[in-house]
Amino acid sequence: MGDDEASVKSGGGRRFGARFATAFAIAFGAAFLPVAAALAHLLRQADFPVLGVEAALAAAAVALGAAVFALLHAAGFALLRALLEGLLAALAIDLVFSSANLAFAGGFAILVFVAISRRSVLPAAAMMGAVMLATTLVGLGGSRDWIESAQGPGPPAPAAGRARPAVLHLILDEQIGIAGLPAANPEAAALADELRAFFRRRGFALYARAYSQHLHTVNAVPHILNFGVPTGAPHSEDGIRVGRTAWLEALARRGYRMRLYQSDFARFCADARYAECHTYAYTALGPIRALDITAAERARMILLRLFAQSKIVAQLDLQYRLARYLSGRPAPALDLSQRSRTSSIVSLAVFDRLRDDLRRARPGDAFVAHLLVPHFPYVVDRDCRFLPRRQWGSRISLRPRRAREAAYFGQVRCTMRKLDAALRALAASPAGRDAIVIVHGDHGSKIVRRYPDAGNVGRFGDADLVAGFSTLFAVRAPGIEPAYVEAPAPVAALLRDFERSGLRAAPAPAAPAAPYVFLDDKDWNPVRRVPFAPDW
Question: Rounded CA gap, 442 and 528, in Å?
Fold first, then answer.
C-alpha cells in the first residue's frame, strides 16, 4: 500500500469517526436532555432536591439509556433511525402530557416525517431539551412543597362560654370493617379482637358491619360527606374535586372553625368554608428522604415515579405482568401502576402533622382529614417501622393473597398506633377529653379474588363484595357509651344520623330491608346497583 492510499484511508476513517461521534452526540443529547428536563421538573414538583446523590443516580440511569439509544441511532439504517426518533418523540410527549393517544399520534407523525424526508428531528429535540432543562434548573417552572397550607375565612370564632366541643373526623382510606376481615385468614380473628379492644378502651361506639356503597374514593367520599345523596361531581383517574358537602356545611353552620387535610386526589377544600386547608401531594417524593433506605433505592423510586407518568410505559409493564401471570410463570416487573406510588408514606407523615396540630386544638375547632392509610403500598410493620423496599406490598400484586393480607394487617395496626397518638394529643390539648371523634373508612381493603365491578358480574362472590365495601365506623362524644353494634348500616347513613342528633347521640341504625351497593364501570362510574352480600 502506498503512502497516498494509506493517507486517503486514514483520512476517510477519521471523517467517518468524526461523523459517527457527531451523530452519537446529537442523538445522545436528544434522548437525554428532554428526559432529564422531565426528571428535574418531577423533582421540583415532588419536593425533592434536584441537586443531590439520588437525583444524580437517576440522571446517570437516564444517561445510560440515552447512550444505548444514541449508539443504535448512529449505527442504524434509515428506517431504524426513523423508528427510534418516533419512539423517542412518543416517550417525550407521554412524559409531559401523560396521554397515550397524543404520544402515539406525535410519535407516528415524527416517524413518517423522518422516513419520507430523510431529515432528522434530533438536533431540534436536543435544543428544545437543553432549553427545558436549563429553565427547570433555574426554577422557572416553579416548585411545590409536599404539603401546602392555605388560610380561608371560615366562620367566626364561637363566643366565650358557647364554644362547642372540638371535632376530629378521620377518613381512613381502604380501612376494612371489623366484620369484613377475611374469615379464612386465622390472623384476621386476632386483628378483629385488637380493633374491638382498641375502640372499647377509648370509649367509642363501634359499628362492626358498617359498609360503604361505593368501591372507589372518587365516589365514596362525596357520597358519605353528602349523607348518601349522589353529587355527580366529575372525576378521573387523577382524582376529584368533591364539591360542597352537607357534612362540612353542617359543621360551618354550627360555628366550627374547620381545619381540613386533603390529598390532591380528593379535594374538598375549595367548596367549604374552612379556616385552614392543608393539601398534601399523595405522589410526593419529599417524605422518602426520611426513610432508612439507600440512595440507590431512592433513585429507583424516583425513576419509577418518572416513568409512571408515561401511559405507554406503564401499560406495557402491566401487559407484561398479566402475560406472565396467565402463563403461570410470574416474574418481577416494574409494576409502574402501583409500586411507584408513595401515598401511604406521605399520609403517615400527614398523620404526624395532624397529631402535632391537635395538641393546639381548642373548643370550636373541627379537624377533618382524609388520609391514604392503610391504603397500599404497605410500607410499615405493626410498630410503624418502615420495611425494606423489597418487602413493600400491594393489594394488586403476584404475591399470594395471604401474604398481601398479612402486609395489610401490619399497616392497619400501624394506622391504629397513629390514631392512638392523635387521640392522646387531642386529649392533652385545650379542647380536652370532651372532643367528638369520628373515624371511618371510605371503602374496604379491596384485597379480593375477583374485582367486584360491573365488568365482573357473575364472576365475583360475596367475599369479594365484603372485602371491597365493608369499612370501619366508630364515634365518640360526650354522652355516648362504649358499644359494639352489629347491625349492618351504610357509613353515609351513620354520619347523617349522628349529625341529625346534634353530634350528641350514637347512631341507631335500622337495617335496610335490602342492603345494596353500586358497581362501577372501568371509568369508575356507578352503573349498576346490586344487593350487598345478603348472608354477611
Answer: 19
Whether residue 8 is predicted with pLDDT greater than 50 in this model: the reply is no
Write down the pLDDT at residue 156: 62
176-284+343-522 in CATH: which number? 3.40.720.10
Q: Are 405 and 136 in contact (CB under 8 A)?
A: no
Mean pLDDT of 198-207: 98
Confidence of residue 160 (pLDDT cuts 50, 70, 90): very low
Residue 476's DSSP bridge partners are 437
Collapsing DSSP to helix, strand or coil, 529 comes out as strand
Residue 219's nearest CA partner among 238, 205, 233 is 233
* Rounded Cα distance, 78 and 107, in Å: 16
Name, in order, each residue with C-beta under 8 angstroms of 217's C-beta and a sequence gap of 6 or more. 173, 240, 265, 266, 442, 443
| Residue 272 φ/ψ, nearest 5 degrees | -120, 155
With 0.70 as the threshold, say if the pTM is over it: yes
Q: Spell out the domain ranges in the chain.
A: 3-137, 176-284+343-522
Confidence class for position 327, pLDDT limits 50, 70, 90: low
pLDDT tens column, 239-288:
999 999 999 999 999 999 999 999 999 999 999 999 999 999 998 899 99
| Grid coordinates of 221 | 367520599
- For the record, the C-alpha cell of 114 comes out as 423522518
